[in-house]
Amino acid sequence: MARAEGRWAPALWRGCNGLMAAFFALAALVQVNDPDAGLWMVVYTIPAVLTLLVGLNPLITGNFIWKSVSAIHVFFCIVWAVGLAYYLLLHTQWNVLHEEEGRELFGLVIITAWMSLCHSSSKAVSLALICGTRTGAAGVPSQLLTTVPLGQPKLFLIYNFSQ
After folding, report:
1. What is the pLDDT of residue 127?
2. 4, 1, 14, 5: which is closest to 140 by C-alpha?
3. Rounded Cα distance, 123 and 78, in Å
4. For the residues of 95-123, what is the DSSP string, one character each?
5. Predicted pLDDT at 34
6. Would you tell me how many other CB atoms lie within 10 Å of the CB of residue 108?
7. Distance between CA atoms of 115 and 138, rounded to whole angstroms?
8. Which of 55, 43, 53 is nearest to 112 (CA)?
């Protein structure tokens, strides 16, 4: 019963990434009226492309280039969000979302949260490979999983797949 329930998980993960890619792309497109539109278009386009890639191929999260771009972007979003939060803490008297900086902060939090989820999904793929589960996490092909005998964890796979 558990195997039948878990078969929809990879498709759901891909669908959610496709939806978030569309969300980030739309967020980039609506920045045209913003005074610093170019900056915000880049901030939203990077996660749009990264999540689209995850939607097309969930195993891309194990790729060194994908992980590096994702980690660097999340780092800058966190630093920027902390700066905006500090500014809002000092200068906002009403609802944070009534301020442009509050909406910008909320966008950075969404980017950081989703990219962190995508980044951690590569660990789920590694765990599935190490444990030898055939259902797989994040759409791991069954032919890849059948090479790992069930019940015999392969520790060298931690190094190969979690970089």
Report:
1. 52
2. 14
3. 21
4. -GGGSHHHHHHHHHHHHHHHHHHHHHHHH
5. 84
6. 22
7. 15
8. 43
Residue with token string 């660990």: 123
pLDDT computed for residue 15 by the predictor = 93
Give yes or no for residue 28 having a pLDDT over 90.
yes
* Confidence band for 123, pLDDT divided at 50, 70 and 90: low
Are the C-beta atoms of residues 114 and 27 closer than 8 Å to each other?
no
Backbone φ and ψ for 57, nearest 5 degrees, come out as -150, 95
Q: Which two structure tokens, joined as six digits, stand for 27?
A: 């967020």
User: Which residue stretches of the chain are H helix?
Assistant: 2-6, 9-29, 37-56, 64-91, 100-131, 142-145, 156-161
